[in-house]
Design a protein that fits this description.
Elements lengths: L1 E7 L4 H14 L7 E5 L7 H6 L2 E9 L2 E2 L1 H15 L6 E8 L4 H14 L2 E2 L4 E4 L5 H19 L3
Parallel strand pairs: 1-2, 1-3, 3-5, 5-6, 5-7
Antiparallel strand pairs: 3-4
Length: about 150
């Protein structure tokens, strides 16, 4: 059994819809050997990361940066997980009012220090909320869970 940590900051009903879509994708009935743990960044612990075989991280863009909750998560897990989780597969989803570039760069700098392994380029949902974002985030959850299930990562 593989373990997928879904760690998405949800300060609004729209970001909750995106998290729920990612969870729905990761819970697809064809995926049989993946256990999910869904934890908000402020509640996630180093033990959650140590448990995981892959991580799906999601954040809002706040002032051109990741949410404070996501930054707090990285501050708390960085050193306890640094040596033990190198190569951890991850994917990022960003809900951006602007373009998400600053958020992406900031997250990738921290993650490169952790030496985690990117599964796919970050998904950035830009501009006014659009219902197509929901299917994009569902696909993101499905992609990472299916890859784990198939032993690709």
């Amino acid at each position: 059994m593989k373990h997928l940590l879904i760690n998405i900051h949800c300060p609004s009903s729209n970001t909750q819809k995106l998290r729920d879509a990612a969870v729905k994708g990761a819970s697809h009935p064809d995926i049989s050997d993946v256990t999910l743990r869904v934890v908000e960044p402020l509640s996630a612990t180093p033990e959650d990361v140590l448990w995981a075989d892959a991580v799906l991280l999601g954040t809002t863009e706040n002032f051109g940066y990741m949410s404070g909750a996501m930054k707090d998560f990285f501050d708390r897990v960085y050193y306890p997980c640094l040596e033990l989780k190198q190569g951890l597969p991850y994917a990022i989803g960003i809900r951006a009012g602007l373009d998400g570039t600053g958020t992406k760069i900031a997250m990738e700098k921290i993650i490169s220090g952790l030496k985690w392994r990117e599964i796919q380029p970050p998904l950035t949902s830009k501009g006014d909320f659009d219902s197509r974002f929901i299917s994009d985030w569902e696909e993101l959850g499905l992609t990472i869970a299916a890859g784990l299930d198939a032993g690709i990562f």
